[in-house]
Amino acid sequence: MQGRTIDRHKVLIANRGEIAMRVMGACTRLGLDFVCVCTAVDRESGHVRMARELAGDDAVYTITSYLDANEIFSVADASGATAVHPGYGFFAEDFRFARRVVRRDRPMEFIGPSWWVIRDLGDKINTKRIARSLNVPTVPGSDRPVYSEIEADEIASSLFEFQASQGIVDGVIMVKASAGGGGMGIEEVGDFNEFRSVFRRIRNYAKRNFGDEGVLIEQRIFDFNHLEVQVVSGRGGQHHVHFGTRNCSVQSTGKQKRIEVAPGFAPDVVAYTFDAARVLSEITDHSLAMARETRYDNVGTWEWIITPRGEPFLMEVNTRIQVENGVSAVISRVHGEPVDIITEQIRLALGEPLRYTQEDITFEGVGIEYRLVAENTAKRFTPCAGTITRLAWPEREWLHVHTHVPTDRPYEIPMEYDPNLALAIVWGADLAEAKARGREFLDGLVLKGRCGNATSEFYSNIEYLKAKTDRLLEF
After folding, report:
1. Which domain, by its residues, includes 175?
2. How many domains does the chain have?
3. 459-469 pLDDT per residue, tens
4. What's the CA gap between 431 and 262, in Å, rounded?
5. Catalytic residue among 16, 22, 203, 320
6. Counting beta carbons within 10 angstroms of the beta carbon of residue 57, is it exposed (0 to 12), middle (13 to 18) or buried (19 or more)?
7. In 3D, which of 104, 196, 116, 185 has the Cα closest to residue 156?
8. If both were cysteines, with which of 100, 227, 280, 386 could 451 make a disulfide (CB 3.0 to 4.6 Å apart)?
9. Do 87 and 145 share a domain, yes or no?
10. Does residue 129 form part of some domain?
11. Catalytic-residue membership of 320
């Protein structure tokens, strides 16, 4: 595929809903043909309608699952697609899928980082090792699986001592199965005298369930802010820029983000107990240093936690486009012009040069992204099944709403997927204006529905979002 120009590509969008629609928009801006996929329960989704309106009925292929790679590749071959955009979730951070895209008999382009970058940074232990080799601060604890009780005791003891030195009275450490995932094989320990029995229990659990009894031991950090750095890199892995920071601290009990704000702190208007401007500078510098070291070559996010004392610790690297890319884009300018990060992701993945440096990027104002979700926030954010009967909002020049929910007819929420309904991105000249506009949007938003169970009330998180808006970016 070498030598082909970008406008001769056809992109297979291997995802659904809002992200599929935003990728379609980016393809249209770039003059690229595209096709999309949908499952039977997604036939009424806005991404299907948009694909048909922009590219005709032949642009939509029905599949049984978004997680069936063979189906995805069958659609690619049937449609003549030359590139695959995985969106977020599903195959977005699966290095084996990305490797298969570029190595199959009819190779295509993978719109994301190279598969070996996804592999190397998708391994949290390896990411921690790379970070520490560059003096990038990481969550205190082991950077490799621990098997020895003696070594485990030494690490646990040092972590409890470290927390005591931070003024933490009731320190807690995390004991995790290194081969686990999805919250499996994790326990918290608040007393060193209990640690050894927990270590043995997790080690046995890991061996039984994952075939590897390795254990990770890390400090449990409370009351932190969750910040991210948006990195964009050229395909050769030599040119790297950032599109600022964002604060993702408003989350559900399941650690799912509900509000994101860019930039990540507001040093000029919010009183912090630390130098917030310095912290923002540090985490962007560290993120770019790691991007250079690993020859990162597309869009990615470096995730950080910031303690109440202003200490940053790298958590992980997300080797994909993220839901909240739009809130970074809304405050970013390249050569004084607005930027779309998904458009940049596609353009760079298909071989075009970066065309700008960090000096060409400026930032204006404050952005807030609200995730509208059908959920009962009072009951641990329990998803709400049912039908959306009306979704409407007043149009504003400072507002962008991305939704796959039709606004002209009822829409049944498919419970096979997360009950996310829309993303609303608000821009303001400063934090006060952004918050005021955010409240104005939420107050004017109309979201009505009915539950599948006629005796149950339909829930959304609108009131929760309103309550959280007043204290955004505060610690």
Report:
1. 140-219
2. 3
3. 999 999 999 99
4. 9
5. 320
6. exposed
7. 196
8. 386
9. no
10. no
11. yes
